[in-house]
Design goal:
The protein is an alpha+beta fold. It is built from four helices and seven strands; from the N terminus they run E-E-H-H-H-E-E-E-E-E-H.
Length: 169
């Protein structure tokens, strides 16, 4: 188990940053497409709505786990996809504190996702309500890889590799 600890509004300063690396697998894309009905994404995760959803999911996970961390409430998000998501290679998601709005406890974060060559394939702006008290959470590490696929197959009465109609058999 991993312990994650937040940064409170008072502790956060412009320029603070958090980064995570993640290798986006084809199964992640298929799971997203299946869960949210984004059939365009199955053809290729470039300009589909699902690409924006995946990027935002990774960035909001970084908000909830690192900057500011547990207890944060996301108020607004905006994402712009600038190119195809890198599949099978490490991507880097980074959040940087742009500003603090003292009157409301809001922190404005700039998000950016890059591929291993440094090419920016997504940018984002997130406005979050940062916590005012310290919070610590124990988090079990897990992966959802394959869960949606197994569920789709069992619902169709198939086992992996036996059918021609279901994807991703």
């Amino acid at each position: 188990m991993q312990t994650i600890v937040n940064k409170t509004f008072k502790e956060i300063a412009p320029g603070d940053a958090a980064t995570v690396q993640r290798t986006l697998q084809a199964g992640d894309v298929r799971a997203w497409a299946a869960a949210f009905g984004d059939v365009d994404m199955l053809a290729g995760p470039a300009e589909s709505q699902g690409a924006a959803g995946i990027v935002m999911a990774i960035l909001t996970a970084l908000v909830g786990s690192a900057l500011p961390g547990p207890g944060t409430s996301i108020r607004t998000t905006s994402v712009q996809i600038k190119g195809a998501l890198p599949i099978g290679t490490a991507m880097t998601a980074r959040l940087v504190v742009r500003e603090k709005r003292l009157d409301h406890g809001i922190v404005v974060l700039d998000g950016q996702c890059t591929d291993p060559t440094g090419r920016v394939f997504a940018t984002a702006i997130l406005e979050v309500l940062a916590p005012t008290t310290r919070q610590r959470h124990q988090v079990a590490e897990h992966r959802l890889e394959g869960l949606v696929e197994r569920n789709m197959l069992s619902n169709a009465g198939h086992t992996r590799g036996e059918c021609k109609e279901c994807k991703p058999c």
